[in-house]
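Why do we care about 3D structure at all? Because function follows from shape, and shape follows, mostly, from sequence. That is the central idea of this module. The next example makes it concrete: a single protein chain, its amino acid sequence, and then its structure expressed as tokens.
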Amino acid sequence: MRPLTRIAASTSALTLAAAGLIITTSSTPAFASTCSQSRLPLPDATCTPGAYNPDVTQSTIGSTICVSGWTATVRPPTSYTNPLKAQGIIDYGYADTAMADYEEDHLVPLELGGAPRDPGNLWPEPYSGTKTATTKDGVETKLKNAVCKGTITLSAARSAIRSNWTTALSVTGIG
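And the structure:
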């Protein structure tokens, strides 16, 4: 499903789920998946290409991402992200449909100036596996710290994490 249609579809999916109209068997999602799991722990680049917050640039990092607590000022509420997560679980065709087993994660993290509300920057990242949502959080923090220290540029950090968060530290030379 294209990112821009995820909001409307997720609202419909939640409405149907609340009404008890989405029925699944033990391990089969109610709808066919439209996003591939083949790149896990990375998202499907077609469904989740990533997006940047235009307010965060190399020249504004001192007043944005490098300010303690700044991400809390732009983080969308769960009332916005939970419907996207519910739809994303369907779109990715995850057999496990428990919302608590996923983090609705920003591919380009808020810590690096990722777009907070762009559905193309959000995806349901599993907490299970060898490289998980929790693992990615550590990578995000190390990259942000390196950007704020001037060790790497914002552009280099964003590019590395958007391409492949599992190799972002080695690609940027900080880990």
